[in-house]
Amino acid sequence: MRHFLIPLALSLAILVPVYAQDASPAASPAKTMSEADKKLATECLSQAKQIALGCRLYAADNHGKFPDKIEQLIPDYITDATLFVSPLSPKKEAMGFEYFGKGGTDSDAPDKILVRSKDLTADGRRIVVYYDCSGKIVADKQ
To answer: Cβ–Cβ contacts within 10 Å for residue 135, how many?
Structure first.
């Protein structure tokens, strides 16, 4: 029995610190964002999801088809055009999001990108919202 415990103890001594390091908050990329950057990213994600929801509502009223331009959502589905101004935009452009729904329908693959932020967070992340209105903050791959 003793011969079994020594290799087990050695394995644990090696593996536990490695796995603990992987699970630590410092190792998580999401934890590297500043509080101010998290706030802006969260606001941007919320706005992008509202735009995606407006697209879904538009599609419900238009035989399942998304609008050709997201500006078509005004005023029936989005009442305030300032929703299109991304909190991540340093210039506060009138359109702070890229739209990929032209020609799309509400029955397209749910993991297709519908809306994403034009600007990045300070640590190089982008806001992405999919056809099913789910969204996340992802590392930019450009």
So the answer is: 20
What pTM was computed for the model? 0.75
CA dist 132 and 50 (Å) reads 12
Residue 131 has, within 13 A of its CA and on its CB side, a CA count of 18
Both tokens assigned to 91: 């210039």
Closest CA to 57 of 45, 43, 70, 44: 70
Q: How far apart are the first and last CA of the chain?
A: 55
Task: Say which amino acid occupies 132.
Answer: D
Q: Look up residue 139 and give its two tokens.
A: 């590392």
Q: Find all residues with CB under 8 Å of 133, minimum gap 6, and list them.
A: 49, 52, 53, 56, 114
Average pLDDT per consecutive 10 residues, the chain (142 residues; last block may be shorter): 45 44 43 81 95 96 96 94 92 91 94 95 93 92 64
